[in-house]
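Re: folding output
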Amino acid sequence: MSTRPPAQRRRHGHDIELLTARWLSERGLREIARNQHARGGEIDLIMRDGDTLVFVEVRYRRDCHHGSAVESVTPAKQRRIVQAARFYLARERLSCACRFDVVGVTGTPEALEFDWIRAAFDAF
């Protein structure tokens, strides 16, 4: 667990999400929204990949000593993301192809590594 104060952790998380959005944009995705809160869940990034709406979970770890960032997206977390995505789609009155991606970010801001898992899980 981090010893940083909660406000500092939130800021760091925001910065990592911003860097991840830029990284994904450089790979052809277009940012739609960030930090969408919806009924028990949050979606870190919502992006477009062509006609597909992509809900992106961003996970950060300084190192992999306690497992990779991607491995930390548990089935319970997946359910909360799916629930939040359904709420977002209903609220925005959208009906389109969707995908759930996970981006694991490891390292320090000077040397980040991105592990992008497209279609990491399905809505269930």
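--- second protein (sequence, then structure) ---
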Amino acid sequence: MCESFLCGLHLAFECYRDWRIRYETMIISIMFIAVIYYIHGVKRYTTRNIHVTLFVIISLMGFLPGFHWYALHGGWSNGFVQQFFPRLFVLYGILGVGTFAYLTKFPERFFPGYFDFIFASHQIWHFASLGAFIWWYQNGIDLLQYRLSNPCSTPEI
């Protein structure tokens, strides 16, 4: 997950070096704390709800730099924003479907015995995560191509 944040942040904030460094430092720090927590949490057999809550909080941290990026580029009137900002919501929509299935145990909770081996909530979560990473990868390539053809023309803020 950390590499996804860092790649997106690096390309999106390429023209805003100071903000890029701040956000990258924040994400790396949060991920470091999460790894330490998971190492100690597994040893202490902490509950699954804490793990899921931590995962959701880390995932939602992408909205802060996303909305800041939106504001730095002048909002919806900017073509760059119009092209890439909606893709962030598609990413979170895909992840949301997987997280919803995982947290609610859909479909096996409502159809006991039918989804024990195929299409269980945990598998849906993994498929959604894979789909989100593929989506993010493709958009990262598009963002990189955009940056290569439209280099930064404004001074760094």
